Amino acid sequence: MPDVYSVITEADDAVIERVAMAMETSAADPQHEAMVADYLSRLDPSDRSRVVEIGCGTGAIARIITRLIEVGEYVGTDPSEPLLERARRFAPGGRLRFERADGADLPFDDASFDAAIIHRVLSHAPDPTAVVTEAVRVLRPGGVLAICDGDYATTTVALSATDPLQCCVAAFTPAFVNDAWVVRRLSRLATEAGVERLQVRSYGFVQVHDADYMLSIIERGAAQLVTTGTIGPQLAAALTGEAQRRVDNGIFFGHVAYGSLTATKPRMQPRSEAGKPQRARRESNPRPSDP
Question: Is the per-residue pLDDT at 271 higher than 60?
Answer without folding.
Answer: no
